[in-house]
Amino acid sequence: MLVKPKLLLVDDEENILKQMRWALESDYDVFTTSVEGEAMNIFEKEKPPVVTLDLSLNPHNSADLGGMRLLEQILFQDPATRAIVITGNGDDKNALRAIRLGAFDYYAKPVRIEELKIMIQRAMHIHQLQQRVNQNDQISGNAFHGMVGTSKPMKDIFRF
Prior knowledge:
The chain is of the alpha/beta class. The protein is 49% helix and 16% strand. The two termini are 32 Å apart.
């Protein structure tokens, strides 16, 4: 039996989560939540290689960017994670901030499932390629191109 890759979807709109789960569960082991703390718990337990994050997770206050906080926490914990930031507000400033923080891609609502599927497939593929590069570098002993140091900050520098 083929193991499906894990995917975490985080959005404050339950109907969007249900639609995305329905569209993606044939290809992925899908985890969903609309709660910031629960998203972090799922991430720590399941270690999905790809995560989609709605920037605003507070339906009563769209200025509360819980998804941005999650992005920082997730990438701090596992810089190899590919995070796709999804938002309902077309705020370029927040898009640029998310990319600067390390988001893999940025997508504006309304969600068009076929487009999102392609983004997720690409993110999964890039993650798998990066894992293979890392394994090959460890085998060859050339992971840091002659640099000395294997601390987390040094690994972060060389993750690209």
